[in-house]
Amino acid sequence: MRKGRGLRTYTIFYLIFLYAPIVLLPLFAFNDSKIIAFPLKGFTTDWFVALWHKTELHQAVLKSLIIAVTTAVFATALGVFAARAGTKYRFRGKGPVLGFIMLPLVLPDIIVAVSLLVVLLRIGMGLGMTAAILGHVVICLPFAIAILNSAFSSLDQSLEEAAYDLGETPFSAFRLVILPLVMPGIISSLLITFTISLDEYIIASFLVGTEETLPVYLFNQMTKNSREIPVVLALGTVLVLFSILLLGIAEYFRRRGIARTGGKDTGGFL
Amino acid sequence: MTPNPLIDLRAVQKYYGDYHALRGIDLTIHQGEFFSLLGPSGCGKTTLLRTIAGFEDVSSGVVMIDGKSMEGVPANHRPTNMVFQSYAIFPHLTVAQNVGFGLRKDPRSKADKDKAVVEALAMVGLAGYGDRAANALSGGQRQRVALARALILEPKVLLLDEPLSALDKKMREQMQHELRRLQRQVGITFILVTHDQEEALIMSDRIAVMFEGEIAQLADPQTLYRRPVSRRVAEFIGVMNFLPCEVTQGAGDAIEVNLPGLGHATLQPDQCPSGGVPGTGSVGVRPEAMSILFEGEAASGQIAQAEVVEVIYYGDMTYYEVRFDAVEAPVTISMKNIVGRPVLERGDKARVSWDARSLVLFC
Ligand SMILES: Nc1ncnc2c1ncn2[C@@H]1O[C@H](COP(=O)(O)OP(=O)(O)OP(=O)(O)O)[C@@H](O)[C@H]1O
Ligand SMILES: [Mg+2]
Description:
Oligomer: heterodimer
Order of helices and strands of chain A: HHHHHHHHHHH
CATH superfamily of chain A: MetI-like
CATH superfamily of the domain at 1-79 and 192-238 in chain B: P-loop containing nucleotide triphosphate hydrolases
Structural class of chain B: alpha+beta
Strand order of the largest sheet of chain B: 6-7-8-3-9-10
Low-confidence stretches of chain A: 266-270
Radius of gyration of chain A: 22 Å
Shape of chain A: globular
Helix content of chain A: over 70%
Radius of gyration of chain B: 25 Å
Structural class of chain A: mainly alpha
Distance between the termini of chain B: 37 Å
Mean pLDDT of chain A: 83
Strand content of chain A: under 5%
Distance between the termini of chain A: 28 Å
CATH topology of chain A: MetI-like fold
Number of helices of chain B: 8
Order of helices and strands of chain B: EEEHEEEHHHEHEHEEHHEEEEEEEEEE
Largest sheet of chain A: none
CATH architecture of the domain at 1-79 and 192-238 in chain B: 3-Layer(aba) Sandwich
Number of strands of chain B: 20
CATH topology of the domain at 1-79 and 192-238 in chain B: Rossmann fold
Mean pLDDT of chain B: 91
CATH class of chain A: Mainly Alpha
CATH architecture of chain A: Orthogonal Bundle
Bound molecules: adenosine-5'-triphosphate, magnesium ion
Number of strands of chain A: 0
CATH class of the domain at 1-79 and 192-238 in chain B: Alpha Beta
Strand content of chain B: 35-45%
């Protein structure tokens, strides 16, 4: 079993590299020192208190929330259409079209950001929150579709036909049968796209203009004055907990959806 | 009671792209009939059922239900209901909500609808299951829920697409009888799709045998079994032996054939679905239509000499494979194991009694 041991060592190192920085985050957020270095000094919650009093930060959080909520709603709504078309209808060029929509998944964000910036400036649309929402919808859509595809394709096609057969119109059949069954997928898509948008930096920094979102604000704080670093770490701690919570909820709903329709689990993000 | 036509299909054709799935179906199904569509996989049974239900448009031809053309009428406006092969039970609803699903637009009061649901559940033997979650049911129970959900709407026609194929053998046999009983009780026309010939024979008033998008024969079970119109139908329904023969006189009221090893037979026109043409042909005979004569048993027809080449003992029945003189292929004969009748062994000589009336001539 030498091979197995090699793989295990690799996995352990991988996990350490991945998560050690995140573990350091709360460690220094509660550390009573402005300098980020060992040994730790004492325990303090000052940095969290300082968070509470920063109004620019609150502004940034608010903007990020607005962008994230709008993005989540739009990306999920579009995702529902795409996933339904993809699972229900056969049409010419379906493969290429769906592949095209999924492209931002592998495209570097910086390319999406730059191209959107160029286009938006060209068509005379100013930078700001709307532009950021547009950019975020583009990068969130593939995630929404991936999640919703799994929800829609685990549905038995004859469920919908049974609803027609029992007198429902296509619209009421969708509302009474399809929607409740894919609802867990929709919720999970909303949560995931919300999370992606909330902490997205590159596209936001290119497109928001003067309206700093939270990640943009944070980055500027970190680079401009290092005094603020422990406060930023405190914020980071809060955000990590928040993200874990959201992802957990999203995965719960995704699994529940699959269990409900009696389908097989074919992936997912957790 | 004169049969009342309920469903009329005229020259129905269906293409899926280039694939010709239904090749001119003409079919009349009567009011209150238990009708089966029987055929091998891929012959178009489901497609035909779905054109009646309104899930598929016909490429040409007419579907009439109760005297009205169904052209342009969507599934939710047709007087048909369907029991799907997968049952299509709504997993997010309870059993009662599933059964009452189609009553949503019914103008009756809620109390009346609840009562109808309770009655429908009782009818299919699921009284008291109303509050169960639908996805916590066994296959047989799902099947019953699907039936109740369709029957509660009192459709003119109930369409069933292989409703029993997902059940185990015991359950399937039980449901076959129950479906038949239910159909007699409610008097609704049932159209059943199946690829199981035994199931079709047991349950149906009439059966349409389909091959490759065409109806090969439409008849009641007895006619279908005794007088199949082609070798292919005969092979699909039960077991049939085929013996080579020489038609010496074709056409007319009496067709004369010579059967090597058995003798001479005179056949009636109803035994020759494709007519009698002088020359070589083959004659079909069911295993139970011939019998081996034991001591003290009298022949009911002609007698031929044969040798037993294989014995398969089933308890209630024994299947013998025998070889007639001058006939290469062995012939299967089934014998009931009645008291006092011995079981022969391989190599034994046997006297086989056969009757010209039980033969079918295929040219
Ligand atoms: N939507 C479709 N598109 C293209 N071809 C189809 C479609 N539905 C059915 N077919 C083809 O039509 C033929 C008949 O199909 P159908 O489902 O009616 O067969 P069936 O007799 O019900 O068979 P089975 O016993 O396997 O259910 C098959 O060859 C099938 O491949
Ligand atoms: Mg079928």
